[in-house]
Amino acid sequence: MARLLEGRRALVVGVANRWSIAWGIAVALSGQGARLAFTYNRERSGEHLARLVADLPQMIDVPLLRANAAEEDSFEPVRDDLARRWGGLDILVHAVASADPALFRARFSELGRDGVLGAIDVSAYSLIAMSRALLPLFERAGGGSIMSLTYDAVRRVVPGYNGMVAAKAVLEAETRYLAADLGPLGIRVNCISAGPIKTLRASGVKGVDRARKLMAERAPLRRNVTAEDVGGVAVFLASDLSRSVTGAVIPTDNGFGTLGAVAD
After folding, report:
1. Which residues of 205-240 are buried (b: 16+ CB within 10 A; e: fewer)?
2. Of all helices (H) and strands (E), which one includes residue 5?
3. In what order do the strands lie in the sheet with 64-66?
4. Given pLDDT bands bounded at 50, 70 and 90, which one contains residue 219?
5. pLDDT in tens, 23-33
6. So which residues are the catalytic ones?
7. What is this structure's pTM?
8. Distances (CA, A) of 202 to 81, 113, 194, 208, 211
9. CA neighbours within 13 Å on the CB side: how many for 234?
């Protein structure tokens, strides 16, 4: 049986470790035949990423490219490298997010300007910068799919998420505006709103364990969300099955966000 993404070329940005949502997406894309490339920020991260990639089946000559989401022009060398290797690009997975840990501990009214703007810069503005830098590769491919990750804390108050919520709100707005801007070029832009997943970054957010317990007990599907679940949605967004879907924020939360209150 033909795989959905056979021959497609995907760049995944934001893998921290094997528990990352980005890694779950990468495994799912690979399983459907996509060729993968990754970026990393620090040398140590690159070494760890190389060990992870070595475990992927049938992955040969996977580009691991250094880039910093906080630097305006950081993805131009990535574009040039992928242009030489692949010629074009079909899929971009933006899964990078960063904020000062102090922002997650502070009261919302006490958040500092520099901390909030820093979170927006790395976690949201970087999507614009990446899309702009990689646009020639998508144009060579005749279009493609860009996706990023958000969280329902934009619509509902989640204790402890203070430091990141502004960045995710900006990211969701960017999704709509980039979809309108890039749609005539055949490029779809969407955002996956995943439920609470126990990742290294999420462990710093007060209340994540409680949120997962509530989801397993009260969500319509009575289970927690996994990185593999998000990977399945990513495969859909990367494939031609989603050819008419763009500018969307897609909940991947077992229906928990549909509840007006936590049902008994």
Report:
1. beebeebbebbeebbeeeebbbbebbbbbbbbbbbe
2. none
3. 64-66, 35-40, 9-13, 91-94, 144-150, 187-194, 249-252
4. confident
5. 999 999 999 99
6. 151, 161
7. 0.92
8. 32, 22, 12, 7, 11
9. 33
200 or 55, which is more confident: 55
Q: Report residue 200: phi and psi, to 5°.
A: -60, -45
User: Are 131 and 175 within 8 A, CB to CB?
Assistant: no
Quick one: 9-252 is in which CATH superfamily? NAD(P)-binding Rossmann-like Domain (3.40.50.720)
Distance CA 205, CA 251 (A): 20
Q: What are phi and psi of 93, to 5 degrees?
A: -110, 110
Task: State the average pLDDT over residues 166-177.
Answer: 97
CA–CA gap between residue 236 and residue 242 (Å, rounded): 6
Two tokens at 194?
């995943």
Q: Report whether 91 contacts 10 (CB < 8 A).
A: yes
The two tokens of residue 165 are: 């919520």
Which residues lie closer than 8 Å to 209 by C-beta, 6 or more apart? 198
Measure the CA–CA gap between 241 and 230, rounded to whole angstroms.
Answer: 16
Listed range (40-49, 183-192, 218-227) with the worst mean pLDDT: 218-227
Residues 6+ apart with CB under 8 A from 245: 188, 190, 237
Contact 95, 20 (CB under 8 A): yes
User: Residues 90-110: what's their mean pLDDT?
Assistant: 90
